[in-house]
Amino acid sequence: MHPSHESRAGSAAGEPDAGKRRLLKLATASLLAWSGTGMAGSASAAATRQPGGPPLPENVMTPDDALTRLMAGNERYATGKSTPLEFSEEREALVSGQNPYACILGCSDSRVSPEFCFDEQHGDLFVVRIAGNYLTIDIVATLEYAAAVLHTPLIMVLGHGSCGAIGAAIKASDGNEQFPGHIQAMASALLPSVRMIKDMPGDRYENAIRMNVARTVDKLRRQPPLLSRLVSDEKVRIVGGVYSLKTGRVDLVA
Ligand SMILES: [Zn+2]
Fold it and tell me: How far is the CA of 225 from the centre of ligand 1 (A)?
């Protein structure tokens, strides 16, 4: 477990003093920075970009550490050990800027709120949501901003079970169903994922949800000019997950 999580896990286990929690997080981050461990390449950039360092020093980490932290947060959430929400101190720290440690491209579905799913708070996650978690040029631009400007080391594409957008794409595929307004554009964007799993064994709906995540991850890893380079330089890691509505757990699928 990353040291900064211990303070959060500790607080969930019965540490009531928010001020003490915050101090512990900052002390841990300072130690990591001082010893040189836990400082990603992006960290030094963030530190020089903003006089006085990043607003949340504990968010400065390598892509692998970011994934470990994200999944540990999901474990706390899924097991009912989420950290009690306390906003005042984070809000003050974040007036000067932001340095989220992970970027989530998720579905707009009201049942899948990333900050809850990963037990994080303001300033931790840079979130983009669109029904069906697929890519448009605007979404690519937003993800590029997180990775290249904010130096966020991790991007997770987050699909989920029972995704209505994928369900619509399956209906469009099966019955040539036409949806009103602009909804058809969403179904059309997801159609390739439905077609690609046509001969795959197992549950068709679940396969399409996973395929959509995997395809989006693959496109992002190869997306020129910024993301492909950040990935090959190992400054950014891009992964895919599927959230279970029933268990609250995120399975890594790409
Ligand atoms: Zn959805």
Answer: 28
Place of tokens 């891009």: 238
This prediction's pTM: 0.82
Say which residue the tokens 């400082």 belong to. Answer: 39
Distance 228 CA to ligand 1 centre (A): 26
List % helix, strand, coil for the chain (3-state, nearest 5): 50, 10, 40
pLDDT in tens, 199-215: 999 999 999 999 999 99
Cα of 108 to ligand 1 centre, how many Å?
Answer: 6
Instruction: Compute the distance from residue 235 Cα to the ligand 1 centre, in Å.
Output: 29
- The amino acid at residue 150 is L
Domains in the chain, ordered, with CATH? 3-252 (3.40.1050.10)
Spatial CB neighbours of 139, under 8 Å, sequence gap ≥ 6:
105, 128, 130
